[in-house]
Structures are given as C-alpha cells and as structure tokens.
Automatic annotation (TrEMBL):
UniProt keyword annotations, A-Z: Carbohydrate metabolism, Hydrolase, Magnesium, Metal-binding
Catalytic activity: 2-phosphoglycolate + H2O = glycolate + phosphate
Protein's name in the database: Phosphoglycolate phosphatase
Source organism (scientific name): Cohaesibacter gelatinilyticus
A biological-process GO annotation: DNA repair
GO cellular component, one term: cytosol
Cofactor names: Mg(2+)
Sample GO molecular function, one term: metal ion binding
C-alpha cells in the first residue's frame, strides 16, 4: 500500500514571506500608502491570498467593500506574479529530504492555501516538480483549509482512498490552519516549528514537531516502524 506525505507550502517547504511582502507593499504603494513590515506580512499568511489582501487593507484602514477587495486581490496577484520567487527560498534540507522520501517510494503531495497557478509556478521555479504527484491550491476547490476537502482531494489525486488515509498519510505543515485541517481530517500532523505559526507549539495539536528537515525522514520512518 502506498504511503503519502502531503506538505503545506508557505512556511513549510518555502520561506515565501519576502515576495509576499514585496507584492503587498507594491499594492500599498499603488494606493499611496505606507509599507508594512515583513513580520506583519508573515503573520498574515496562511489563509490564502484574498485573506492576506484583506488583512493588508485593514491594517492600513483601506478595506471598503467586497468588490473593491476583489479588484485589490487581482492587483496584488499582478505584483506577485511579477516576482513569485525572487526572494523565496526553500528551508534548509528540504530537497535532500524530498529526494530521500521519493527514493523510499512515498507519494508526495502539496496542499496549500496559495492559489494553484502561483503554487505551480513556484514549484516549477524552485525545481520541486519532480517530487510532487499532486498539487491542490487555495482556489482549486470551492473551500480551502481548514476545510478538510483540499487535503482529501490531494490524497485522492495521489491515489489514496480517504478511508485508509489516517494510517497511510502524514500531513506536514507550519500553522494553526494546518493543525486544524489535519485534526478535522483525522490525519497525523507533523509540525514544522520554524514556519509562520503564531501559537506556542504546545497549543497546536500535532503528532510530531520538528525544526530540521535532516530529521524528517527519520521521524516519518519511526512513525511507521
Ligand atoms: O496563505 C497562503 O496563501 C498560503 O499559505 P500555506 O501555503 O501555508 O497554506
Ligand atoms: Mg503554511
């Protein structure tokens, strides 16, 4: 039976906050408004781009209504598309870890709240395509995490039935949203502690916590040994 490891993207495999920060501040500059700090933008990531843009606008008291918000999301994405991974980096050890997991025969998926098109472009640009068998983004389905459907759809595309998933699957993520998703889906959750979480580790439901990708293969194999 195939086993699968599904990863979140932002704050888990990649540190994407610097490019999200730049796009946010370019949007604010279009609106003749002062920039926000990297730390602030990092704290806004995890619920998808529309929510990030809403938080950016509200932080500068610029949120008006849904129609304007929708056009700001489009404007943000134009800035983001112009520099999707200029400053974005993989966390140390990610490539070696994915290599090792792939070599062991694990199926690998990505389940993120980032829009699918931008996710695919970044995955390609950072040369991760060869590892990944399924990608579900925040706009791939009508709902996004913490709804469980995106994670279930990732597993379905990897060829795993939902019924068997709790025994054969691990979800790896960095945030409150990921922990809640895995818990609701009854899937073991490995928490990468150096991502964008806002809560203390002990307040996030998790199976295993780690901060070094050099340890992840061992931790995964320990769970199934
Ligand atoms: O909020 C986003 O756009 C993406 O965040 P995620 O990759 O951590 O799900
Ligand atoms: Mg994340």
């Amino acid at each position: 039976m195939t086993k699968a490891i599904v990863f979140d993207l932002d704050g888990t495999l990649i540190d994407s906050a610097p490019d999200l920060h730049q796009a946010s501040n370019r949007l604010l500059a279009d609106l003749d408004t002062e920039p926000l700090s990297l730390e602030t933008i990092r704290s806004f990531v995890g619920n998808g781009v529309p929510k990030l843009v809403e938080r950016v606008l509200k932080a500068r008291d610029l949120y008006r209504d849904e129609a304007r918000h929708a056009s700001m999301v489009t404007q943000f994405l134009a800035h983001y598309d112009a520099a999707l991974h200029d400053k974005t980096v993989l966390y140390p050890g990610v490539v070696d870890c994915l290599d090792a997991l792939k070599a062991q025969g694990f199926s690998i998926g990505i389940c993120t709240n980032k829009p699918e098109a931008q996710t695919r472009a970044i995955v390609k640009g950072l040369d991760l395509e060869r590892f990944v068998g399924a990608i579900i983004g925040g706009d791939s389905l009508p709902v996004k995490k913490p709804a469980i459907e995106p994670l279930q759809e990732t597993l379905r595309q990897l060829g795993l039935g939902v019924a068997s998933s709790s025994d054969d699957v691990i979800y790896v993520g960095d945030s409150e949203v990921d922990a809640a998703t895995a818990k609701a889906a009854e899937i073991p959750f490995f928490l990468f502690t150096d991502g964008y979480r806002k809560s203390p580790i002990n307040q996030l439901p998790h199976t295993v916590a780690f901060n070094d990708y050099a340890e992840l293969e061992y931790l995964i194999n320990s769970k199934w040994s």
